[in-house]
Each structure stands twice: as structure tokens, then as C-alpha cells.
Specification:
This protein is mostly helical. It contains 24 helices and 3 strands.
Length: 558
């Protein structure tokens, strides 16, 4: 069943209940949620987190408290989470945003008082038709879901459980590990899931959101890469921005964490941030186009806000014809064109958006400022080359040294960049491995796909053998310890482990060897990652002959 098969409104059903059943449909299919959990959910149960292992620089996820339904025999609470879907019309967070905004902006329901526990702990996600503060009944949800399935010619035996079962079948077909599926659907209630730690099954979340669960760093969607600004959120729902400001003002009046906890301020902040994420994803999805089942953007269709303008009163609000939103929609459209053309990596403007963590966003700003002085010189160089006419690659590279900063000492990153810009014999590139990686995932990313637009080390080895490596003892040492880690990951994958599990296992060994941070040496940022200790362990477990390594180094210099 595609998005085109679903009616704009469930037959003989009000817009409110149509949006509620749409959210239930999405939540059961993407999150494997039970209907009982959805009916019991209140606003205070929601919070948001950023997972740093998904996407090029992290991705936000919407989380909520749940008891796991009838499979939870001890009654301890646990946590559920979901990612924004790659396909906007299948996104549970988008559906939730449409439901909430219909209540606040179309039905004119009073916005929640985040500082009043009786409000956010009583206000249900799924409400009755006549009362905002009372939850929907089982019979109402069942009858509406049944009408929806009948409208598209489907007759499931269990209407409210059909999505939960389909979620598990789809994930199993995609090759997601069974334990991941069981944890997503709350069949597992062990010590880990019963603790107060949020430990979502990331492979299952990625697959359920339309991404490749075996390549979390490659997760990307054009509409999620454009930053949703506070100006946009204020233009659509100013009550939310005001409520968040009130919560932060209250935090300034308390002196201890215990006092803030007693006033339920942490809960208020979490609920506010969750609502903020929901609104941001709703805005991003509204400006996006639907995708095919394979994940390709349907460039022949209109964005959602235009496509459903005549059928949904939300998209008839002045916000969707405002200049601030139309400018944003233009950025999303441009990002979709780039992704459709094959340029899936976000550019500098996109990188500061929804898919970037706050720390990475700040780093992006700093890097952009430092690179700004070189842009004029680069443009001048390009103008000189274009005026001179055709030139060889070697001649074009000649003026580049004049662009280097005028200082005697370079950092390790600058030296690596300068070496990477050089070209070896017969046009073979010389690539210097990035020296300051702190995680196994980052090291493996450089090996398999490349870092920051650079080449994949695995491709360099395949195409050029050892000739791409820089000469000298430092280059040899850097490659040698990298190769030990590469081999350990590949060894585990050949033994049957998935890529994710292999990376996690090697990272766990690295974490056990972590050393305390010390003051950085000259040109060397401080790092707790004890790569030397890890390589020492790997060499002890899988020793190499010194003679083989010496011959390899000598051949590399020939």
C-alpha cells in the first residue's frame, strides 16, 4: 500500500480522528508500538535525544516513556525511540506534528502549560473528540482503523495490531538482527532495558526509518539536512517558543538539581524539546516530496504542503504562504535536486541543519570562518587559470603553495591536508591518513567511504597498492597501526559478525584501554583513545612477521 492509496481523510471520520489514526498507523508500522502504549502516552512522557552515530554528524530522535504493554511482567518502565523517516509521508514524527498542530492551530486548543505537571501529565497524545484532557477509547480507535483499511480494500484480522506485525516482518526481510527487532517491539525486559538508560536498538530504528541499517553514518535525507530555524518555529507556533523560554527562566531561579527535580523542571524541559523537534520535523517534511518504496525522491510530484493544500486545513494557514517558509522550501527543493542527481552529501549550509549536533554545528561555523580568508585567493587563482587557457594538472597545481598560511609551524591536520594535495608519480594521489580519530567508526569510515570528501582508503589500496602512501617513517607507522584495526574488523566480519557488531566490539576493546586526557602536545590534540594499546593487543593476538613488514615498506618506497 503506497501513500497514494491512502485517502486524504478516513471516510465518515472527522479531521481530528483522521489525523489520530494516521499517527497510530505510522507509529505501529515504524515503531512497532502497541495500541495500548499509544493510548496511555501523555505529553510528559516525551523527550528528545541526539544519536551521534547516525548520519554524517548525528541525528535527532524522538523518545518516550513506555511500560512495554502486556509483555512486561514486572511493570518497570522502559524507553522507546524513533528517527525521522527518510520518506516524509511515512514519518511518524511528521504525523504526530500534524495531529498536535491541528489541535493547537485549527481547533484552537490551549497550548500545554509546561510548568504545570497536572497539564502535561494528564494531556494525552490520543484524545477524545470532545475533551482535550481525556484519552481516546479502544473502541473508537478500532472502528476508525477498520474504516481506513476497508477504504483501501484491506481486511486485516487485527486492525490495531496489523502495523506492529508488519513492522516486524519488514525488518526481518531487511535482515535486521532478531534481537534488535525484539528490543524495538518490547519483547525483551532484561536488566539493561529496565534500567534508566535510553538504549534504543539503532539498527532496527534505522531500517524502520527507511535508512540502511548496516551503514548508519550514510543516513541522509535532503529535507532533514536543511536547518529549521527558530524564526520558522516562531512563525508557525509562537506559543512553543514562549513556553520554552518560561521553562528556562524557571531554571534560573533554582539553585540545586534536587529543587529543579521537585518542580518537575527537567520533565518540562524534555517535553518542550520534544515538541520543538516534532514541529521542526513537521516543517521539514511539509516542504519535502514523497519518495518511492526504494527511497528515491519523486521529483515529478509536488511538495507535501502543496499536494495536500486543498484537503488539509493545516496547509491553508498563512504560514505556508509566508516568505520565511517559501525560502525554506526553496532550500529543501535545491537539496532534493542535488540528492536526486547523486550528490547525497550535505553542503556547508545544509550541514548546520537538523542532521547536525550542536557541537558539530559550532565546529562548522569556526571552520567556515577560518577558511573565509582563503576564498578570495582561490577565486583569483581560478581566474588566472581560466585566462591562461588549457594547462596540465601539474601546471595548475604550481600556484597552490602561495595559498598556504604564512607561518612556520603547521598543525597535524594542516600537514595532512598539504600532503593529500600532492600528486605522486603517474598521477597516483598521495593520501595522508587523518591522525586524530577518536572512534573506531571514524577510522572505518575513512577506510570504506572516505572522510570529508577524501578518497576511501580501501579504494586506494585496491587501485594503487601501496604507492598512494606518503614516504617516510611517520607515514609507515601511521599505516601500520591503522592496518591492524582494519584487519581486526574484517576478521570479525568474515567470522559472521555484522559490520555494526564488529565496530562495536573493537570500540569496546578501545574503550577498555582508554587513557585519561592530558594536555595536548605540540600540534597533537589530546585524546583518550589508546590506539597504541589496542594495536599492541591485536599484534599479540595476531602477530605479523617483522621481515614481512620490512619487505612491504621497502616495496612501497620503490
Amino acid at each position: 500500500m503506497t501513500s497514494d492509496d491512502i485517502p486524504h481523510q478516513v471516510p465518515n471520520t472527522s479531521p481530528l480522528f483522521s489525523l489520530q489514526i494516521l499517527f497510530e498507523l505510522r507509529a505501529t508500522h515504524q515503531q512497532g508500538a502497541r495500541h495500548d502504549d499509544l493510548r496511555d502516552e501523555v505529553f510528559a512522557f516525551m523527550f528528545s535525544r541526539i544519536t551521534k552515530t547516525v548520519g554524517s554528524s548525528g541525528m535527532p530522535m524522538l523518545a518516550n516513556v513506555t511500560d512495554g504493554g502486556k509483555t512486561n511482567q514486572n511493570g518497570r518502565i522502559s524507553y522507546s525511540a524513533l528517527l525521522p523517516h527518510r520518506n516524509p509521508v511515512l514519518c511518524t514524527i511528521f504525523a504526530k506534528g500534524a495531529l498536535f498542530l491541528h489541535r493547537f492551530l485549527i481547533m484552537k486548543v490551549t497550548f500545554p502549560d509546561l510548568l504545570e505537571p497536572k497539564d502535561i501529565f494528564k494531556r494525552p497524545t490520543l484524545r477524545q473528540g470532545h475533551d482535550e484532557m481525556h484519552g481516546v477509547s479502544y473502541d473508537s480507535s478500532y472502528s476508525i482503523m477498520k474504516r481506513l483499511y476497508e477504504a483501501v480494500g484491506a481486511v486485516p484480522t487485527k486492525c490495531l495490531h496489523q502495523g506492529r506485525g508488519e513492522c516486524q516482518r519488514v525488518l526481518d526481510d531487511l535482515g535486521v538482527d532478531l534481537d534488535q527487532i525484539r528490543r524495538l517491539c518490547k519483547y525483551v525486559h532484561d536488566e539493561q532495558t529496565e534500567s534508566y538508560l535510553l538504549n534504543p536498538p539503532m539498527s532496527a530504528l534505522l531500517a524502520a526509518a527507511g535508512f540502511d541499517h548496516q551503514a548508519p553514518r550514510a543516513a541522509h535525507a535532503a529535507h532533514l539536512s536543511i536547518r529549521v530555524t527558530e524564526e520558522l518555529v516562531t512563525a508557525l507556533l509562537p506559543q512553543l517558543i514562549a513556553a520554552q523560554a518560561q521553562v528556562e527562566a524557571q531554571f534560573k531561579t533554582v539553585t540545586t538539581g534536587a529543587e529543579a527535580k521537585a518542580k518537575r523542571l527537567f520533565c518540562a524541559r524534555g517535553c518542550g524539546r520534544a515538541l520543538r523537534l516534532i514541529v521542526e520535523v513537521f516543517i521539514a517534511c511539509s516542504a519535502a516530496r514523497a519518495r518511492t518504496e526504494d527511497g528515491h525522491i519523486r521529483m515529478d510530484t509536488e511538495p507535501i504542503y502543496k499536494r495536500f493544500f486543498a484537503k488539509n486545513r493545516l496547509f491553508q494557514l498563512p504560514f505556508f504562504s509566508s516568505q520565511v517558509f517559501l525560502d525554506f522550501a526553496g532550500l529543501v527543493a535545491a537539496a532534493e535536486v542535488r540528492e536526486h542527481a547523486g550528490a547525497v552529501e550535505p553542503d556547508a549550509e545544509e550541514a548546520a541543519g537538523l542532521g547536525m549536533s550542536p557541537v558539530a554545528a559550532r565546529l562548522d561555523i569556526v571552520i567556515s570562518r577560518r577558511l573565509a580568508p582563503l576564498q578570495a585567493d582561490i577565486q583569483a587563482l581560478l581566474g588566472t587559470v581560466s585566462q591562461a587557457g588549457p594547462a596540465t594538472a601539474a601546471q595548475a597545481v604550481m600556484p597552490l603553495p602561495s595559498l598556504e598560511p604564512k607561518r612556520k609551524r603547521k598543525t597535524a591536520e594542516e600537514s595532512a591536508a598539504a600532503q593529500a594535495a600532492k600528486r605522486g608519480p603517474a598521477g597516483i594521489p598521495t593520501y595522508v591518513l587523518a591522525p586524530n580519530k577518536e572512534t573506531v567508526a571514524r577510522l572505518w569510515e575513512e577506510y570504506t567511504t572516505g572522510l570529508n570528501g577524501g578518497p576511501a582508503v580501501r579504494d586506494l589500496v585496491r587501485d594503487h597498492g601501496r604507492k598512494w602512501r606518503p614516504p617516510g617513517d611517520a607515514g609507515r607507522a601511521l599505516w601500520r597501526w591503522h592496518s591492524y584495526v582494519y584487519e581486526e574488523i574484517e576478521r570479525r566480519m568474515k567470522a559472521g559478525e555484522s559490520e555494526v557488531d564488529a565496530l562495536a566490539a573493537v570500540q569496546a576493546r578501545l574503550d577498555l584501554l582508554a587513557k585519561p586526557k592530558r594536555a595536548a602536545g605540540r600540534g597533537k590534540p589530546a585524546s583518550p583513545a589508546n590506539w597504541k594499546g589496542l594495536v599492541r593487543e591485536l599484534h599479540a593476538a595476531h602477530p605479523r612477521r617483522v621481515e614481512d613488514e620490512r619487505v612491504e615498506d621497502e616495496e612501497a618506497d620503490v
